[in-house]
Prior knowledge:
Elements: E1 2-10, H1 14-19, H2 23-42, E2 46-51, E3 59-62, E4 70-73, E5 81-90, H3 94-105, E6 120-123
Antiparallel strand pairs: 1-5, 1-6, 2-5, 3-4
Amino acid sequence: MKYMVQLFGNRETWDADMAAYTPEALGAMxxxxxxxxxxxxxxxxxxxxxxxxGPGQVTSxxxxxxxxxxxxxxxHFRAEKILAGYWVIDVKDEARAxxxxxxxxxxxGPDGKPSNETVELxxxxxxxxxx
Length: 131
């Protein structure tokens, strides 16, 4: 079963949140993520994993009838949170996906303690829904 695990950051405070990491805390976070990825690779469960840039590195694009697309700097959605990174995993069942998502949630924060931030777990559809 394929799942996407999504990790979010605060859109308005992204830069300050990243700056709050000491070099040691940033190292702990990177090490934690590396262990998670290594475990997935060892188990043959990793499909893809990427960290994303903050809101200042987002460009929104909308097609326009008969013309050039509209291009705007920044996220399109004005939500509080922005996607910070994701994993696509191929696991045996939902329980394993939940186990992995909980490990992502426990990623160390700027103070070095588990952040316990909520992550989202999405089933990757294998086919369109039946009507």
